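Q: What residues go here?
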């Protein structure tokens, strides 16, 4: 585990994190570590998309990339922007 640091946030966000951590039986630090490990960067998402296309035998063109981005936009809209 790396050295702890502080993150400045609003009291409202901190209180919500505390509640979420308590509900999951964990700490705010562990909750944030899980989120950071789970969420992909733009570069990681792009790499996974290329790998998936290769596995499916699909050429990863700009059109395929745009179709994927459009699909995720629809998913996020359906989830209220939470994805």
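A:
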């Amino acid at each position: 585990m790396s050295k702890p640091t502080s993150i400045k946030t609003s009291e409202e966000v901190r209180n919500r994190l505390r509640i979420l951590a308590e509900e999951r039986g964990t700490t705010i630090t562990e909750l944030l570590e899980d989120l950071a490990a789970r969420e992909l960067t733009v570069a990681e998402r792009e790499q996974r998309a290329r790998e998936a296309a290769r596995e499916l035998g699909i050429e990863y063109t700009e059109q395929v990339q745009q179709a994927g981005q459009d699909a995720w936009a629809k998913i996020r809209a359906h989830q209220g922007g939470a994805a």
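A: Context that may help when evaluating the design: The first helix runs from residue 11 to 24. The chain has four helices and no strands.
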